[in-house]
Amino acid sequence: MAEYLDGQAATRADVNAVRDELTARINESRVESKSEIAEFRAEARGEINELRTETKSDIAAFRAETRSEFAAIRFETKAEFAAVRSEIMLLEQRMTNKLGAMLAIAIGVVGTMVKIL
């Protein structure tokens, strides 16, 4: 039995050596994981900042495009209102001329009727 224990049983030194080796491996894995996480975070932040910059430029371009479209619409609307106003003024002048002509004819007819009667 003593022979078996000497050959097969682990000594305190053997257990400590295995524990130290496992502790070293765990610490090494921990350091590697932390560095990988730090790399991932840095990469993700870079991508997020890139997306943020792209989004801001897209929004700025959209704003500029929208403003120019609204300016064009505003210009077209003003031009159309000016055209409508000028047409209304022409119609007003025509109606005034027609009303004046009708009034002159009516006065002529009344004058003629007064002379006849």
Structural summary, described in words:
There is one protein chain. This protein is 96% helix and 0% strand. It is built from two helices and no strands. The protein has helices spanning 2-8, 12-116. It has one domain. By secondary structure, the protein is mainly alpha-helical. The longest helix is centred in the middle third of the chain and has 105 residues, at 12-116.
The biggest beta sheet reads:
none
Supply the number of structural domains: 1
Radius of gyration equals 49 Å
What structural class is derived from the secondary structure elements? mainly alpha
**Quaternary structure classification:** single chain
Low-confidence segments, ≥5 residues, pLDDT <50? none
The N- to C-terminal Cα distance equals: 162 Å
Please report the total strand number as a whole number. Answer: 0
Q: What order do the SSEs take from the amino end to the carboxyl end, as H and E?
A: HH
In short:
With 117 residues, the protein is mainly alpha-helical. The protein is built from two helices and no strands.
Name the descriptors.
117 residues, rod-shaped, mainly alpha
